[in-house]
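Holo prediction — cytidine-5'-diphosphate.
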Amino acid sequence: MRFTIAIDGPAAAGKGTISKAVAAHYGFAHLDTGLLYRAVGRKVLDGVEALAAAEALTPEDLSDPTLRTPDVAQAASKVAAIPEVRAALTDFQRAFARRSGGAVLDGRDIGTVICPEAEAKLFVTASAEVRAERRFRELVTGGHDTRFDDVLRDVKERDERDMNRADAPLKPAVDSVLIDTSALSIEDAIAAAIAAIDARKNA
Ligand code: CDP
């Protein structure tokens, strides 16, 4: 059985939380594609050339504990604008999307570029302030010393860069279901995602 769920949206929209819950609900595998770009960004900060880093990524690179920091997020968004870097990461994502047993991928271009044939597509968003607030709390809980204003600036800068790049810009696929989580609890956002996917499954 092949069934791909594409979950795209701007920075810190809650894609990760929703994707994990959706994958657990359906028993599907989950790939956080942002981690691929973050791992490349991490290596660039360490002095490696971006394309060389993308071509040599290993599974261990994806578990680097610093990948979630705002510095790495910014570096990720910069390398993500390089077409050759995106191309180097495409085959892996496409193979994951079409694996048997079902797959959930979250990112920016899953429904538009990586897997336009995905059976269900969600575009998860929220206001920049709400997204920055959630990310700020996550970072503080994780022990990072950070300021709300800096997190808000990171979120806005990355959205701007991600939406305006020429290659695979962040935008909803025409056939995606929009979920605005600004006023939703985590439980309600997950329930809305599952309802939208069930509607596609039963169509
Ligand atoms: O968790 P958050 O939403 O803050 O970011 P992420 O999903 O980990 O993605 C980090 C950066 O990687 C984004 O700002 C994008 O520039 C890039 N990215 C991308 O271009 N395409 C994807 N499919 C996933 C991430």
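READOUT: Residues 11-12, 15-16, 33-34, 37-38, 73, 76-77, 80, 107-109, 158, 162 surround cytidine-5'-diphosphate (CB under 6 Å).
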